[in-house]
Design goal:
Helix content is 28%, strand content 25%. The chain contains twelve helices and 19 strands.
Length: 463
């Protein structure tokens, strides 16, 4: 007997087939006529399929009538056309086998609604809810779309290290990796002697695979990384995680304009794929989480991304008459409220800001001839603000070394990165997209902790 998913079983073309389904009970309702209705879900889709279990089943009284939410079962039976409203098919069960029971007195996921905060305490069970089943199906779709986009364009997938001795962002908010005895670390001259550590130097969990990605871009052409990154920022906001996933393409012989175009194409491709493949899940988010989800995604997929310089954006904000919590002035980074004003109020569409002040950007971004700005770009989306950050990279050796010294970095610590500019340097560009950030945008979920399976935040590393 063929095993199929609930998603497949809900299709009218399955009527008449003898099938096997396995999943978890959502509800059970008994009829006075001597049979029971079981709502079965297996995670393959938003919908449940109704299983009709007749009273003449051998285990009807002993087991079927004791089923409750959370029980796991195997169903054998025939798919028939459903007489009920809102469903195409149902299963007439010939056998109901119980794999595992769930005590209805203690099983947390009962019919009542639970807050997102409470569900985080049950991260081992929350994927069984409608909301989180939808979130993680969309996450899977987005991840597949990311790989498809780059693979179809001839990019090479590169695995960059998770443990590193380099700080790409220069912010210093990194998790240290050590095998030293923290109760009694070896010391020399009153300081910890890292020569006795595993890597014989201070080492960290990476905040980015960009610098290593550039190595491969300067040898193999267009490449991308897609993996976990870490930031030890003591922040409990709805937009920050200590562990998150980043996709970072690096493109050889590409300038800032080409970089912006790839970023726009990339976002549109992800959204189009999700709208095509996860329609029921998006409808759920639109109905239950944020009633602007579908309209926002449609506008994003179909509309033009405006290119606006940072300097022009500052001018627009200063002349807006809007009161902001954070002061607007040239030379400071834009805050989320500024970015959202530009996308939601002023332009009413996605915006790509470019050419930021050099003083607020990392050493690796290419300097403009004006001496004040760099070839940086941020893609801003309604509701979330910055969704992509990137730049054309500095390919000139003398300028790169000068920028490193400006930011208090020793070029010798990045000797391998510097050497890329000595041996066949090329113009190249890249950007980073936080997977969880775009998932928040697509789903309308208010907290980034609810679009990753097991959120890592200050004071929380459960599961």
């Amino acid at each position: 007997m063929q095993k199929i998913s609930v998603r497949s079983a809900l299709s009218a073309d399955q009527v008449g087939n003898q099938v096997k389904l396995e999943g978890w009970v959502r509800t059970r309702r008994d009829s006075k006529a001597g049979f029971s209705f079981i709502e079965l879900n297996d995670g393959s889709c938003m919908g449940n399929i109704q299983v009709v279990a007749d009273g003449n089943l051998a285990n009807y009284e002993s087991e079927v009538k004791k089923l409750s939410a959370g029980c796991s079962v195997r169903i054998l039976g025939e798919i028939v056309a459903s007489q009920g409203k809102g469903q195409t098919t149902e299963i007439q069960a010939s056998e109901v086998h119980v794999y595992g029971w769930a005590d209805p007195e203690s099983y947390p996921l009962q019919k009542k609604r639970h807050s997102m905060e409470k569900l985080r305490e049950w991260a081992h069970l929350r994927p069984r809810t409608n909301t989180f089943g939808a979130v993680f199906r969309v996450r899977n779709c987005v991840s597949r779309s990311i790989h498809n986009f780059f693979q179809e364009r001839g990019f090479l997938y590169v695995h960059t290290p998770i443990i590193t001795a380099s700080d790409c962002e220069g912010a210093g908010e990194m998790f240290k990796v050590t095998t030293l005895d923290l109760d009694a670390p070896p010391k020399t001259g009153g300081k910890v002697d890292y020569t006795q550590d595993f890597f014989e130097r201070p080492s960290y969990l990476t905040v980015s695979g960009q610098l290593e990605g550039e190595i491969f871009a300067t040898a193999l052409g267009n490449v991308y990384t897609f993996g976990p990154t870490f930031r030890a920022e003591n922040s409990n906001t709805s937009r920050h995680l200590a562990e998150f996933w980043m996709v970072e393409p690096e493109m050889a012989f590409v300038d800032l304009e080409g970089n912006m175009q790839v970023a726009e194409d990339f976002i549109k491709r992800i959204i189009s794929d999700v709208m095509r493949d996860c329609g029921d899940d998006l409808q759920f988010f639109n109905d239950r989480i944020d009633d602007t989800v579908l309209a926002t995604l449609t506008a994003m997929a179909d509309g033009e991304f405006l290119r606006v310089s940072y300097t022009d954006a500052i001018d627009i904000l200063l002349k807006s008459g809007q009161k902001f919590d954070y002061k607007v002035e040239w030379g400071t980074d834009l805050q989320s409220e500024h970015e959202r004003f530009l996308t939601e109020v002023h332009f009413k569409r996605p915006v790509i800001l470019h050419d930021y002040p050099r003083s607020i950007k990392p050493f690796y971004m290419r300097c403009n001839d004006d001496g004040e700005t760099v070839r940086a770009m941020d893609v801003l989306a309604p509701k979330v603000g910055e969704i992509i950050g990137g730049s054309q990279r500095e390919e000139r050796l003398d300028v790169l070394e000068q920028r490193m010294q400006e930011q208090g970095l020793n070029p010798a610590d990045y000797w391998w990165y510097v050497e890329l500019r000595k041996y066949g340097t090329i113009p190249h560009s890249g950007f980073g997209l936080g997977l969880e950030r775009i998932l928040q945008f697509i789903t309308g979920m208010g907290n980034i902790r609810d679009v990753i399976p097991f959120p890592r935040t200050p004071g929380s590393a459960d599961f």
